[in-house]
Description:
single chain, mainly beta, Lipocalin, six-stranded antiparallel beta sheet
Amino acid sequence: MKIGFICIFMILLLNSCTSYDSIADIENDVTHLPFKSTEDGRWGLIGLDGNILIDNEFQEKPSPVINGMFHVKNENDNYEIYVADKKLKKIGNEYLSVGNFKSGLAPVVEKGQCVKYIDRSGETRFELKKYKGEIITAATEFQSGKAVFKTSSNHYGFIDTSGKIIIPPIYDYASLFYGEYAVVRKEDKIAFINEQGDEIMYFDQHIICQFLPSEGAFPFIERENGEEDAWGYMNLKGEKVIKENKRFNGAMNFINGRAVFYNSNNEAGLIDKKGNIIIRAKYQSLIQCNDLLIFKDNDREGLLDYDGNIIMKPEYKEIIPFISHNKFTYALDSDEWVLIDRKGQEVNSNSYDEISYPSSLLLQAKGRVDGWSDSEYWHESDYVDLEAEAEKITSLIKKDGVDKLPYRVTPAVFAEAYNKDYHVSDLQGKQNLEHYILNENYFDVKLFVDYNADVIVPEYSQEWVDSYWGGHFENVLSGYSYNNIEAEDFKLGVATKDKLLKRGKELYDAIYRIFEKRFGTKQDEKDSEDIYSTYFKNGNLSIGLHWIKQDKMSVIVVGILN
């Protein structure tokens, strides 16, 4: 269904402190959080019930325990994955990037490899390498049994837990699925889609929408005629179930039949599904947590029931949202964290210097997440198909020339081939010509052609000069022309960039393998720790392949001699 509005989305992630029934189980079962007992201490993991699982174990902060697993950086700056147990059990390898386990799988990235999904034993279940010849560059964790992937052309699609592509990468952006819906963008068109990839509704003019549907509706802003923003609620048929009203200067999704709203003074209150005000807007913020609310007043946080009655006065700097139906959470009292129950009572006398929770948890608790970034969920591979990239370079070298040029090319033919306007001032005294012939994501290729004499030569005309003895002819410079000499040698300079910036030797090896297959005859040399050379010969054609390690760049030079 089309609605005649433009929609700018920031996507809903279900309030993690509420029941999952209003959208779907968000598969984010957090059981333990990272903590430090003292300011200068090491990190451990503590349960939401106050029981310590691991104490003073890690130099780096671990991730929360989600679905029984967590990860942490080691001394090599790589991630290791562990089963959440007092006896640490490591699974899998070391990784550049690690996601959380959702639907029994986690996305991981190893150096130089594509995104893989591993199971809870550390075994690879499947990998995402290419789609129709394009490299798959990144993928997300699973949510609602689906994950998003991105190709090298920046198109987005979806996979299921078997790795099967269920929605092809046809979108310019796609959010995660939360429950039945995701949001996608294709060119200027933004739409809700269902799990089959069908467009449920899309927008093309003046609606600002910050949430995916929950409980049959979503909040929106309609901007027309430059009027002041006004919020309302719309269903999936495009019907306004609560008309926009200027008393609503902000609105959250419905959770358990209630939604947080903000007035013109940016004060928070609570409404029902008919738009009736249940709690007057007078707080700095409200966060829904099942049968209670976290409220902020005078920069302190406390607890309310859904009728607005105070359960606990605002005493804490910060309260971590209650996760699902958990009985306890942590609150920041002065400079220490303490465990509190759902009545706001401190459970014991223990306190901790730091308790860490993921930013997504707070966003979930507020009923929203930035669906256009979701950076926490994305895992980008540094995988490059080196053989394919090397083929692009080596395909420039022909039996009788390089790219468009024969090996015996003259300067004039070179300039004509690349339609280059070479100025005399640039070429005086030069014995070489150069031109970029290939500019790719991962490297630039520049062609250098060397001559044994100047590229251009002066031209003279004879002019008569009168003198006492009758005059004489004198040679006068009349201009310049290209020298008619043939090239002495060709060189291809390959400057790596992006994902190949520090992988020049690997690209060198890939080119080496192609030349070895093509020519067979070779001679290897290692000039120094930073220079590798190989010479190939095929008839009268001789190719020198060199890898030179420089300060911040790896350069491959291919020299062709005939």
